[in-house]
Amino acid sequence: MTAAVTRSRSGRNGLAQVVRAEWTKFRTVRGWVIGTVAAALMLVLFAALTGAGSVQHGAPRVPVGPGGEPVTDSFYFVHRPLAGDGSITVSVSALRSSIPRGLADLRPGVVPWSKAGLIIKQSTRQGSPYAAIMVTGGHGVRMQDDYVGDTAGLPGPVSAASPRWLRLDRSGDAITGRASADGTHWTTVGTVHVSGLGPTAQGGLFVASPPSVHGMGTSGSVSTAVFDDLRVQGSWAGGDWAGDQVGPESPSFSGYPPNTSGSVTGSAGRFTVTGAGDIAPAVRVTLPTGGTLGEILTGTFAALIAVIVVGALFITTEYRKKLIHVTLAASPKRIRVLVAKATVLGAVTFVAGLAGAAVAVRLGERLARANGVYIFPVTSSTELRVELGVAALLATASIIALSVGAVLRHSAGAVTTVIVAIVLPYILVAIPFMPASVANWLTRVTPAAAFAVQQTLVRYHQVSGVYTPYEGYYPLGPWAGLAVLAGYAVVSLAVAAVLLRRRDA
Amino acid sequence: MPRRCQIPGRNQVAAAATGLEPGTAYNRRHESVSNPEPAAVSAPGIVVAGLRKRYGATLALDGMSFTVRPGRVTGFVGPNGAGKSTTMRVILGLDAVEEGTALIEGRPYHGLRHPLNHVGSLLDASALHPGRSARHHLLWLAHSQGLPARRVDQVIEQVGLTSAARRKAGGYSLGMRQRLGIAAALLGDPPVIMLDEPFNGMDPDGIIWMRGFLRSLAAEGRAVLVSSHLMSEVQDTADHLVVVGRGRAIADAGVADLIAAASRDRVALRTTAGRHATRVLTHAGATVAPTGRDTIAVSGLPADRIVTLLSESAVPFSEVSAHRATLEEVYLELTREAVEFHAATSGEVVR
Amino acid sequence: MRSALHAEWTKVRTVAGPLWLLLGAIAATVALSAGATSVVTCTSAGCGGDPTRLSLIGVILGQAPVAVLAVLIISGEFGSGMIRTTLTAAPRRITVLAAKAVTLTGLVSAAGTVAVLGSLLTGWLILPGHGVTAARGHSALSLADGPTLRAAVGSVLYLILIALLSLGVATAVRDSAAGIGIVLGLLYLFPILSQTIGGPHWQRLLQQIGPMNAGLTVQATTDLHDLPIGPWAGLGVTAGWAAAALLAGGLLLRTGDA
């Protein structure tokens, strides 16, 4: 008699009942429950594999800047101690870079972010705080501090005909950078506060030459700068200028091109300095050994296949076994049935995905760190975003599979269509010779855009890198990428709804 | 009734199927046809011996044994889940058994080179590709046996599917699918025919046609095994019955023998003075049981003795007759113990 | 075997699905190849790739309809129950599987040849317009060129092996959705895993054992010494996968109840 009692409530809230019915259907088919649990386990399993599979014991430590981010801190430094306040001035009349074109074939080239100038740094320890003013290969005069800070100064390249005068003034923690085109008229580029410089800092000339990016690849470059008219005032220690390579052994420094090395020559205020490396935040190409959450969550692809199979079967089985007739006899409002199915499937997949991702991220990070692998740091809110995003990605994909299944009424066809639509663009993106423009286009308009929810890497305008989806840099933001997939879900659900209403069951 | 016109009469069917006059012994004809396999004279028909099979904890077959002889329709009856379909799948080599053998013309199914020339079967009429037409379905089957396409058209005509043969099978009614399944079973003109629940989904016309058809197949000398869970479906068709329950044959006998056995020496008595009659007959040593409002069944006394006793005691009665059990009664009595699932439980073992 | 083959061939040609899937495989292969070759950009440093391989890249999409066809050819029968009819007609189950494999091989080799030739043709037409010319050290695509011929023939063989792999998997799991899911997982997960899993040793290993990565090395015509596995050896790996899948499918078909 309870059935009759329950039914009296049905008029008002029919959807809840259909949802409940669909939930009962879902949980009573063992294969679907297993598939969903398997999806969560895939995330964990592949995280464990990724974490345990890479071993970097004994690798040099990744230098970390004052802000906690990984940095490249490898450059040629011509320095003297500065025990207090003081200033330093120099002119730069040349900055030339060379890029190898093969073994022992060094050719002149432009390295946009090659750097030559003045720097005051806490110490020669990698990752220590600093402020610097410099001329660059393609971005004019810049004032930079603590790896991430960057301010533009005078534009234009430097040459013997058009040299640049640079000046740094230290007053306590405040360092002011100035530049001039003639040595008399100075403009202030910026004043920065560098905390932790300490009583005795190191100051002097530096040359850095980050890897040159061409297409999808990079090659180490080397740059040589000609400095003139070096003058210091204030609490500088006496003695000679010492030339040192900062951070010669570092995961974020690939070393000098063959047959080159850092050097300093000259005296009496005129120096020629050759250097390689960079003083900047590390990005993927400069820190290839670093791991990301996206890599730990590689299992997303396997999980995706599992949830797509379950999602498609959730509707196509009904057609194959003619169960749809029973379903529609029980709830004649067909759209409501579709919505209920999508709700149940999406919710179940989301929960399984979230559980899997949460465990996977923690396990993967732990295993990787235990193996000496450096993971690009993320804030806890970013980590939560990645986990929620993966769960949402899986849930949305399962709803797309459900919709395509309702349209095609054929499990194999639906499964293939959805897997190919979501996974194949990602594979194409990863093809080495795929131009960045195409890769970016693919990750903007195809369902693979949703993998942006996994991105945790930050791109820096002051670092030339390969900012492609393959390297972990997506053209769309995390939620925007997911929105693209959601758009596909909405469209496919709408098509399914229209066809479900229009066609015979 | 237009469909009626498409159904050939029993004798025409027989003639079409064999090319011989109805009633001609099938076995002889079969041996005379050039056939790559040596004719199995030792054990024609189907011999099933001691099949035992388990699905998990369920004992599906528990020593199933019976024989299907040529020239007669053998009814294979039993409640749902008694093991009929499983036995048929085992005979066809589809399911493996832990113990026992199932032989067709003395050989296991796997040993038959062109099996459809030896046994035609229909298990599940809806097991079709919905996008393929009936003709094409039969065509691939024919090709698998090296039979010509001509044979396909013959069987299509035989089962009365000609007008629908080129339509997609997905749109067929259950009755049409049954006919298509029968056509597939007839394709190789086999001496053994095995049909699982062929009456399912058939309309009354179809049922009448099916009965006649089965009888004609047996009349041609074929061994015909027909399963059903309803005795009424086979009682007018079968000559011989194998009654199964809980995975074993609980009776394997001729229909007449079964009825005789069940009837025993009971006498049906119609009287308005049931209580009086009971007292008189019990006193004389008979066993009496009421069977209806005015009827009682008497056993232990011959009919003439009963008449004498009742007349002597002045008990009024209107009828005394030898009781003849119906097949339904036989079936119910035999399977009473063997029924695994009573009405109260709704589950059914599917395989 | 001959009649089993005849029956399978009749089955395939009497429904519309296989034809459409094969046409779909051809269209998908050529379309992706055309798309990929038309976005090639050449810099002074070169065109950064292997023109033959790029022209044949459509195979990674075209293999999907091929896999669907192969899966459906057996799991469709399991789904409808028609497999019982098939096995009743031909009780030697391995013969049935072999007949299906041979039929598939025939169909896929025909469609694969068309798809591969079509892809090479689009590459031949499109690539010179994007600067992939002799001036940059790339000769025009030609089947007279040994490595290109090997890439073309190998691609057709690769598609056949993918079909056989799919057939084996589907025979083992007996369900079309699960079957195609497993097949596409095997194909597409290895390349993704090999990118993300740490350590060059693991990456190389994954590229050597993945049925798609390894098999498609047969398309390579340049930088052969940099390949994780040799072209024919790679195709051999795919063949190993196909053989293993068919073996597993065959054993399960033999022992399981139908």
UniProtKB/TrEMBL annotation, chain A:
Q: Known InterPro entries for this protein?
A: ConA-like_dom_sf
Q: Which Gene3D superfamilies match?
A: 2.60.120.200
Protein name per its UniProtKB record: ABC transporter permease
**From which source organism is this entry?**
Actinoallomurus oryzae
Which keywords are on file for this protein?
Membrane, Transmembrane, Transmembrane helix
> Which residue spans traverse the membrane?
32-53, 296-317, 338-361, 388-408, 415-434, 479-500
UniProtKB/TrEMBL annotation, chain B:
Q: Which GO terms describe its molecular function?
A: ATP binding
Query: What start-end ranges are recorded for coiled-coil regions in this protein?
Result: none
Q: Which SUPFAM superfamilies does this entry report, sorted A to Z? A: P-loop containing nucleoside triphosphate hydrolases
* Pfam family membership, one: ABC_tran
PROSITE patterns from the entry?
ABC_TRANSPORTER_1, ABC_TRANSPORTER_2
- Start and end residues of each ABC transporter domain: 46-271
Query: Which controlled-vocabulary keywords does the entry list?
Result: ATP-binding, Nucleotide-binding, Transport
Family (UniProt): Belongs to the ABC transporter superfamily.
Q: What is this protein called?
A: ATP-binding cassette domain-containing protein
UniProtKB/TrEMBL annotation, chain C:
Q: Which UniProt keyword terms apply here?
A: Membrane, Transmembrane, Transmembrane helix
Answer whether the UniProt record assigns the keyword Transmembrane helix to this protein: yes
> Which residue ranges traverse the bilayer?
54-74, 101-127, 147-170, 177-197, 232-253
The molecule here is called ABC transporter permease subunit
The organism named in the record is Actinoallomurus oryzae
Please name the taxonomic classification of the source.
Bacteria, Bacillati, Actinomycetota, Actinomycetes, Streptosporangiales
